[in-house]
Design goal:
Number of helices: 12
Distance between the termini: 37 Å
CATH topology of the largest domain: Endonuclease Iii, domain 2
Order of helices and strands: HHHHHHHHHHHH
Strand content: under 5%
CATH architecture of the largest domain: Orthogonal Bundle
Oligomer: single chain
CATH superfamily of the largest domain: Helix-hairpin-Helix base-excision DNA repair enzymes (C-terminal)
Number of domains: 2
Shape: elongated
Helix content: 55-70%
């Protein structure tokens, strides 16, 4: 219990430092409605957000709603999203997901974890992002940046996404958990870069087990 208390206090300090460093905790995927965010998040698997943002304008001009995407020819969607990688699977999922939204949810993106993860191509990471960003619910989005940084800090000691999600749900203040995840992504891109962290510039260095152990990245 003592360890959990200490880690919760540490998580609060880290949260405050990230809030100061990154006041705007925004999702990098460009979208105008819940469906577009859902589709863009599916495209972001094994692909950068920057690449997705280059592809989605053409995709959403042609298929702006679940109803339109549900009627799409999968090969046409493949052609539009080709540069996103794993494009055949993603195109199939986008069309099947849209059909399911229309059939079961009246074309609306559902709120519950169960309903979201029942959609083709939607796992807990995507569902958590939707629940946090669209519905304002407490959510832990287990992006690779979040998993890596949480381990370096010593908040978790596992790379299993579900275990990281469960652990951080226990440590983070619920109302700040979603923004915490967005800020970790921003920090992972700007400073705590995989394999070449700039520890000398890191606002979290004083809370970081990796830094304290002397395994410090260069500037």
């Amino acid at each position: 219990m003592r360890m959990n208390c200490d880690l919760r206090q540490k998580a609060r300090r880290v949260t405050a430092l990230l809030e100061e460093a990154y006041p705007r905790a925004l999702c990098a995927l460009e979208h105008t409605d819940p469906f577009q965010l859902l589709a863009a998040t599916r495209l972001s698997a094994q692909c950068t957000d920057a690449r997705v943002n280059l592809v989605t304008p053409a995709l959403f001009r042609k298929y702006p709603t679940p109803q339109a995407m549900a009627r799409a020819d999968v090969e046409d969607v493949e052609n539009i999203i080709h540069s996103c990688g794993v494009f055949r699977t993603k195109a199939r999922d986008l069309v099947a997901m849209s059909k399911r939204l229309c059939e079961l949810h009246g074309g609306k993106v559902p709120e519950s974890m169960e309903a979201l993860t029942a959609l083709p191509g939607v796992g807990r990471k995507t569902a958590s992002l939707i629940r946090g960003d669209v519905f304002g619910l407490p959510a832990v989005v287990t992006d690779t940046h979040l998993i890596r940084i949480a381990n370096l800090l010593g908040l978790v000691a596992t790379k299993d996404p579900f275990k990281v999600e469960t652990r951080l749900r226990d440590l983070l203040e619920p109302e700040k958990s979603n923004d915490f995840c967005h800020r970790c992504v921003l920090h992972g891109r700007a400073v705590c870069v995989a394999r070449r962290p700039r520890c000398g510039e890191c606002t979290l260095a004083g809370e970081c087990d990796y830094f304290a152990a002397g395994q410090r990245g260069g500037n």
